[in-house]
Amino acid sequence: MTEIRFIVNPISGGIDKKKVIAAIEKYLDGGIYHPEILFTEKAGDATRMARETQAELVVAVGGDGTVSEVARGLVHSDKCLGVIPCGSGDGLALHLGISRNPVKAVQVLNEGCRMQMDVARMNGTCFFCTAGLGLDASVSLDFAKSKRRGLGNYISLAWKDWHQYPVDTYTIELETPSEVIWSGPAVFVTIANANQWGNMARIAPMASLRDGLLDVVVVHPFSALEIPDLATRLMVGKADTSRRFLRFPASKVHITRTRPGAAHCDGDPFEAGTEFDLDVLPGALNVMIPRAKAETL
After folding, report:
1. HEC sequence for 153-207
2. At residue 293, what are phi and psi to the nearest 5 degrees?
3. Domain boundaries, position 69
4. Global pTM?
5. CATH number of 275's domain
6. CA distance 249 to 212
7. Mapped to the 3 state alphabet, what secondary structure does 3-39 carry?
8. Widest CA span of the chain, in angstroms?
9. Which residues neighbour 287 within 8 Å (Cβ) at sequence distance 6 or greater?
10. What are 181-198's pLDDT values in tens digits?
């Protein structure tokens, strides 16, 4: 019998977790698993619980922030991450092909397979989906402060911040070998391990979780008239075809900007300085995925 721990963030995504718990209790295969359900109360609880448990499979029940916290407690261990997504964006889960329907997500735990995925780091902090500097980080910071959840509020905040957030100048330097590969103005810079921010907005459609590389995506300044085209490309997985997007795959980069401001790791925003070191830990996390995705991720 496999020990499985569910770590539940009761407030993520503004979603009532009673239905999720009911799906776990009804559909989890009792012939395979011996479950225990734990609830977080504050930031950091999920990482501590994941690190301390002896369970072989540790399931994050929440959004990208919860997934990130749980995963940080599992990096470089034999334990495996599972995900039941119920957040505002659910970027890593959607990249992995895990449904936001809790019944289908539980079925992945019953029938899926393990995969080793890369882990990214920004200034030593692990992230698993994306990190960002500039506009998307500013929006994440405002979204975290807002009482409203959901994609609609995120879009509203993005529109407001796009008008207010000044374009910054960035320099991207490869660390091995030391070489400046780009410098110039950008609305934002996203560093992608997975392919999206969430809600299928694929900012880095070429990103892979198993290639040992980060996708550094630079977005040049754009006009209001270009927004519909950029948004469409983002949602259909063609962002890389826009002339406003630049992509630099690398295993280790150093990024500088001209002034301090917002940054984020997996949507968790914070105020930061001007210097950022980013690298990859190849295959450092075990994750449970749909069996049908085993050959394509």
Report:
1. HHHHHHHHHHHHCCCEEEEEEEECCEEEEEEEEECEEEEECCCCCECCECCCCCC
2. -95, -5
3. 2-111
4. 0.91
5. 2.60.200.40
6. 10
7. EEEEEECCCHHHCCCHHHHHHHHHHCCCCCEEEEEEE
8. 58
9. 80, 81, 82, 83, 96, 114, 115, 116, 117
10. 999 999 999 999 999 998
